[in-house]
Design goal:
Length: about 220
């Protein structure tokens, strides 16, 4: 009996191929390998889809040449494993009579794949739920919400007008900001100017004293 299996190309592409058996020799040829070295069953996944229990097995090589690494993202627990070349995925159905081979399609594998990853979120359904979601602030009185953003007033969110007004009541007298000496360079410049003025005054004072002393000495000699 022939069943369909999935061949995962090294680039991540999926191809459906018919196989007469699930033995490693048959799967090896389906993957295009000549040597069986390193080619074996790597893991099995068990999952229930629409009431049917599936067992899915992965056959792959764990060694190979550089640049032949398989880029497909396999489900856990082999999501961090590195395989080379093509990989084969085969399916079984588990029932009361045991395990029998079952054909896999791309559509069925998509369902199994999503299930193994914990399910993927339906973005369309999520968007509809977001639109129908009730805003908790609708029941809050307008006096307790900010004017512009409609946010609830608390210790962290206030109106912009309140922020500006509070700034003029802070200590410091100029917008609520205390500027330390030398912080913006203005105080230092004033000190330098004051020092320059003091040195000039001292020089002028010294010259006046010198002239007075000179004049005094001259008068004493004359007398």
């Amino acid at each position: 009996m022939s069943v369909d299996i999935l061949i995962i190309g090294k680039g991540g592409e999926i191809t459906v191929k018919a196989s007469s058996g699930f033995d490693e020799g048959c799967l090896l040829k389906k993957c295009g390998f000549k040597s069986a070295k390193g080619f074996e069953k790597q893991t099995e996944w068990s999952v229930k889809i629409s009431g049917t229990k599936y067992v899915v097995a992965l056959f792959a090589k764990t060694n190979g040449k550089a640049m032949t690494e398989n880029k497909y993202d396999f489900p856990p627990p082999v999501d961090n494993m590195l395989y080379f070349g093509n990989c084969a995925i085969v399916g079984y159905i588990k029932d009361s009579e045991g395990i029998i081979p079952a054909s896999l399609s791309c559509e069925l594998w998509d369902l199994i794949y999503a299930k193994l990853f914990g399910g993927f979120e339906d973005l369309d359904a999520t968007a509809a739920e977001d639109e129908n979601e009730i805003d908790e602030l609708d029941s809050v009185p307008a006096a307790q919400k900010t004017k512009n953003g409609g946010y609830l007033k608390d210790g962290f969110v206030v109106d912009s007008d309140e922020e500006v007004n509070e700034g003029f009541h802070d200590e410091g007298g100029e917008g609520g900001e205390d500027v330390e000496d030398g912080e913006d360079g203005e105080e230092e410049d004033e000190d330098e100017d004051e020092e320059c003025d003091s040195s000039e005054s001292a020089e002028n004072l010294g010259s006046e004293l010198s002239e007075e002393s000179y004049e005094t000495d001259s008068s004493e000699e004359t007398s």
